Amino acid sequence: MKRVLLTGASGFIGRQAIAPLLEQGYEVHGVSTVAQTRPHVQWHQADLFDMQQSDALMQKIRPTHLLHFAWYAVPGKYWTAPENRRWVEASTALLQAFQHVGGQRVVMAGTCAEYDWNFGQCDEQTTPLQPATLYGQCKHELQTALSAYAGQAGFSNAWGRIFSLYGPHEYPSRLVASVILALLRGETAKCSEGSVIRDYLHVADVASAFVALLDSEVQGAVNIGAGHGVALKDVVDRIGMKMGRPDLIRRGALPTPASEPSLLVANTVRLQGTGWVPHHTLDSGLDDTIAWWRSQHAAGLHA
């Protein structure tokens, strides 16, 4: 029996990983700081910052696999938040506990912020790792720890570097969600000029890519992205057209931060080696996301 401990199971990506994990035959154990219910998932309430709780959780579940998404991710704050350091410590303790119960494979979530953004096109083998933020530095520190523990304990491991994503349950202040919500309210959607190019992937496809990686024998860093770029102005313009309110899009109303690279796109050859293929195109993914936010807006949520 493949038994997986899924951290961040109620989060943006984690909740989307449950269905593909079940489809691949995993016994899914989700962990959250608050009580959760979902069919076919065994939920555990624990504070992963408490090492005793982490160890007790591992001893209770004794997972064969670990899929680790839990991290601090509040927009505008996570780049420099001290919680990044705490998550390195908590995640390392989780690895130690996993090692003690004889776990077989670990996949953890990294970030494109580990790369030197001056290179634009990011390849796992050739692009230098030079994180410019505390968030990127801490993620890379964790990957180093993961490789070391895996080497000592003999379990296999992979590290998924996430690029840009969007979809249901996203923070309302992030780009795609904020534009959709503004248009739903009949308000002006203020955006930057939008010439920068990003690699956007629907969150359900991000989650299924991680599950494919977990179920594979691929080792080391793997980029998680669409493998091609789109200008942000094209993303917001598509949203405006799909929602019938292109008149409310105000590109250039906000400045483009000086720290933003003009190009940030993933080489996805290693990911494709797992056999994974995305379910959504950008158009179908935006349609799905708009429909979800419409339902939330109609119910008076995220107002």
Could you give a quick summary of the protein structure above?
With 303 residues, this protein is α/β, with parallel strands linked by helices.
Give an overview of the whole structure.
With 303 residues, the protein is α/β, with parallel strands linked by helices. The chain has 2 domains: 2-164 and 202-224, NAD(P)-binding Rossmann-like Domain (Rossmann fold), CATH 3.40.50; 165-199 and 228-263 and 279-298, UDP-galactose 4-epimerase, domain 1. It has helices spanning 14-23, 51-61, 83-100, 134-153, 175-184, 203-214, 232-242, 269-272, 282-298; strands spanning 2-7, 26-32, 41-45, 65-68, 105-111, 121-122, 156-162, 164-166, 189-191, 197-198, 200-202, 220-224, 230-231, 249-251, 263-266. It has a 7-stranded parallel sheet, with helices on both faces. The longest helix has 20 residues, at 134-153. The relative contact order is 0.13. The mean pLDDT is 95.
Number of domains: 2
Residue-averaged pLDDT, rounded?
A: 95
Radius of gyration: 19 Å
Shape: globular
Class per helix and strand makeup: alpha/beta
Main sheet attributes: strand count, strand direction, barrel closure: 7 strands, parallel
CATH class assignment of the largest domain:
Alpha Beta
Question: What is the correct CATH architecture of the largest domain?
Answer: 3-Layer(aba) Sandwich
Proportion of beta-strand residues: 15-25%
The helix content is: 25-40%
The overall strand count is: 15
Number of helices: 9
The order of strands across the largest sheet is 3-2-1-4-5-7-12
The low-pLDDT segments are: none
Return the string of H and E elements.
EHEEHEHEEHEEHEEEHEEHEEHH
- Tell me the span between the first and last alpha carbons: 43 Å
In CATH, the homologous superfamily of the largest domain goes by the name NAD(P)-binding Rossmann-like Domain
